[in-house]
Amino acid sequence: MLKVVTFMKQVARGLQMEGNFGTAHVYRSSLNAIIAYRGKGDFTFNEVTPEWIKGFEIHLRGRGCSWNTVSTYLRTFRAVYNRAVDCRGAVYVPHLFRSVYTGTRADRKRALDTEDIQKVFTKLPQSSAVTSDMRRTQELFVLMFLLRGLPFVDLAYLEKSNLEGNMLKYNRAKTGIPMNVEILDSAATIISQLRNKHTTVLPEHPDYLFYILSGKNKRSDEAGYKEYQSALRCFNNDLKSLARKLCIRSSVTSYTFRHSWATTAKYRGVPIEMISESLGHKSIKTTQIYLKGF
Which of 109, 164, 213, 223 lies deepest, with the highest CB count within 10 Å? Predict the structure, then answer.
């Protein structure tokens, strides 16, 4: 019988060796949550019962985890359990996860209302209190909206070769879906202002369109993953400062304008199928989650 902690560490190491750094990080976070619930001592999968799983869920909620975080940890543990069953290291227990939550909720408002969107599009005043980083963050945020709710990960990984005239042609970082986005004049102006003008590129390294990532690390390397995570944290912190400056009370993150664009398109009467295609979703069900609060 396999040990839970040992096996989860093994799975996480395997994912990291395959270059799936983000997934490996989620597995380690889930394992840390299990250790906090169960204690540092290892234990076997035959000790995992429906009651144990329910207790883990209650423990996570007691720590203040959102339902979506709870779901992520439980789905991750379910995936590990299924792997253990497949390699005969755990006994299959029917409906083991039936009584716990493994879905996705859209309880929290993620889209800005029209008034707040207008604030973001309003130029910041000329003031010593407004830094160049704040102006750049605002321009990037506006650009993400103008490019059909472009997610930050795709923005950061855009290369100069993805820009062909007035079209952006790239593959979604999350799903690999090919995307073709027309660049309107307002977006073209921002791209011209922010584009990376460095001409020196390391051999076999990315030549990024914007100077969000340095290009010194390959995307497939762990150093590249860590650089992106650092850039994302900095961007989200800058967004909080920008929101305070613009007197936006709603929570603002790198995904806010993606949800805002989808909601705005829905208000304008754009069919959900077209919204889904524009966002690069594999399934309309994902788009419906975006628009639950509509």
Answer: 213
**Close Cβ partners of 64 (under 8 Å, ≥ 6 residues apart):** none
* C-alpha distances in Å from residue 28, one per residue of 63, 96, 244: 18, 22, 34
Contacts 24+ apart (CB under 8 A), 14-21: 16/222, 19/220, 21/222, 21/225, 21/226
CB 287 within 8 A of CB 275: yes
Tens of pLDDT along 208-250?
999 999 989 988 889 999 999 999 999 999 999 999 999 998 8
φ and ψ of 208, to 5 deg: -70, 145
